[in-house]
Structure formats: C-alpha cells, structure tokens
Design brief:
Elements: H1 3-22, E1 28-30, E2 63-68, E3 100-105, H2 117-135, E4 143-148, H3 150-157, E5 168-172, H4 187-201, E6 209-214, H5 222-231, E7 236-241, H6 256-270
Parallel strand pairs: 2-3, 2-4, 4-5, 5-6, 6-7
Antiparallel strand pairs: 1-3
Helix pairs in contact: 2-3
Length: about 270
C-alpha cells in the first residue's frame, strides 16, 4: 500500500474516531471499573444525544456524589473531555465507601448574551439531577454536591436547597467572574456580577461546605472566600494552602494525602 495513502487513511480514521467519541454524552454515573450492581442509568460516555432520566435500584441504600466541572469560557459550552474537567483524584477517595457513586454533570450552560447567567442555568441543571435522584428513592441526606471552579461556585449557590435536596458540598477553588487582575479590564464581572451572586449566596439560612482554596489562586484566594466563614462559622470548613500551582492545584495537589483525609473525615462526619 502506498505510504502516503496509508498515512492519509490512518489520519482520517483517527479523526473519525475522535469525532465519534466527542459525540458521547459525559453526563451520567461513573463506575471506575466497578460492576453496575445497582443498575445505575445513565452511565457516563456510554450513550449519545439527550441525557436519559436517572434510574437505579435500591435508592435508599445509595450515596450519590454529584460532580460539577469548571467553566473555561461562559460564552461556549464546556468541553468535558479535557483533563482539567476530570473528577479530582483526591475526591475519588469517596468511591471506596460502600454503595457510593459519582454522577458527573457535564454542563451545557452558556451566558447566551446575559452576563453571569450561566451560573443560574447550571443551578437549574443541578436541581434537575437532584429531583431525579430523590424521585428514584435516594435520600437527600445521602446526596453531596461537589465541584471545581465555576462548578464549585454553583454548588455553593445551591445552598437554599441544603437539607432539603442534599446533605452538603465539597468544593475546590470555587470561582466566578474571572481573575482578580482583570477587575479593571472587565469591571462588570467582579464589581457588579460577583457581588450580586455573593449577596444571593449568603441569603441562605445555612451553608454547609468543605472548601479548598489556594493562596496563589488568581481567582479566589482564602481571603476572598472568608466572607463565608464569617457568616457561617460553624458549618463552613475553609482549608487554605499553597502548592505553587494556583487555580490548577486541585489536579496537582502537593498535599493530596492530607486532602484525601480531610475529605474522608468530612464525608463521614456529615452522614
């Protein structure tokens, strides 16, 4: 076979396979190689098109952890295949607990011309998953919200439903409205939209959350999130440290052993 023809064929095949994989829907349960003993549906990346309704067996015996990824650009749908959108290794410590499963929520939310509205749309997406889980028998006290960056911020924005639809949240580097350095370049984000959402967030009667924040984060350092600890001192656990990786520390955690232990202890004490 002609070498040029062979290379062209292989490249075409590679592109075709990538396009095929890209059509797979990421929203769904993640088994991490474990058997699907509770008939969980849908399974992440095992189907295409619209996300099917959640179905499962033995709902009252299960604990579900909903994971919400970050948002690179609110003007575009997020690419859930990117490595930085994977569930953090530190959080995966929770899959070791019996009857505990992750539900990965691949958001389709964008701003659509209304600044900051993607967070409100992501709240609607989370609410839909919560309602479906509860409808198939999962107890609200056995549902946890988790997330990174905008996904973590959205989880905190859901606290008007804490105790009603879910137990609490575990979030990493919760962020909204861009990096601090751009406050004068894009003033509306951090001077108007962020304060508006902070005001809405702290209208909740209680915020129950474990928050990991990084001292060299360009978005929100521990001091930018300390308003939560001041308002809810008994129900917020704010962990701050520095690994030299900034906002990406969640995936390059220099204290991953300690992080895992903190997450495990928080999870066990919350149930």
């Amino acid at each position: 076979m002609n070498m040029k023809f062979l290379l062209a064929f292989l490249c075409s095949l590679f592109l075709c396979l990538n396009a095929h994989a890209g059509n797979k829907n990421f929203s769904g349960f993640m088994l991490f190689g474990s058997p699907n003993t509770n008939n969980l549906e849908p399974i992440s990346q095992k189907y295409k098109g619209k996300t099917p309704k959640i179905n499962l067996d033995n709902g009252s015996d299960l604990t579900i952890i909903i994971y919400s990824h970050g948002t690179s650009r609110p003007q575009k749908k997020e690419n859930c295949t990117k490595s930085y959108n994977k569930i953090p290794q530190s959080l995966k410590i929770l899959k070791k607990f019996d009857n505990t499963y992750f539900y990965y929520l691949c958001s389709k939310a964008t701003d659509g011309g209304v600044l900051g509205s993607y967070i409100d749309k992501r709240k609607i997406e989370i609410n839909k998953v919560l309602d479906q889980l509860i409808s198939v028998g999962v107890k609200p006290e056995n549902i946890f919200l988790t997330g990174y960056s905008a996904g973590g911020w959205t989880s905190l924005m859901m606290m008007d439903q804490v105790g009603k639809k879910f137990n609490s949240a575990i979030v990493f580097a919760p962020a909204f409205a861009g990096p601090r350095s751009e406050i004068n370049k894009y003033p509306r984000w951090r001077k108007i939209e962020r304060p508006r959402q902070v005001k809405e967030m702290i209208e909740a009667k209680i915020i129950k959350a474990l928050i990991f924040a990084y001292e060299d984060d360009a978005f929100n350092r521990p001091q930018e999130l300390n308003f939560l600890k001041k308002k809810y001192p008994s129900s917020i656990k704010l962990i701050g440290y520095k690994c030299g990786k900034g906002h990406s520390t969640v995936n390059e955690d220099c204290k991953i052993k300690q992080t895992k232990e903190i997450i495990k202890d928080y999870f066990q004490s919350s149930k």
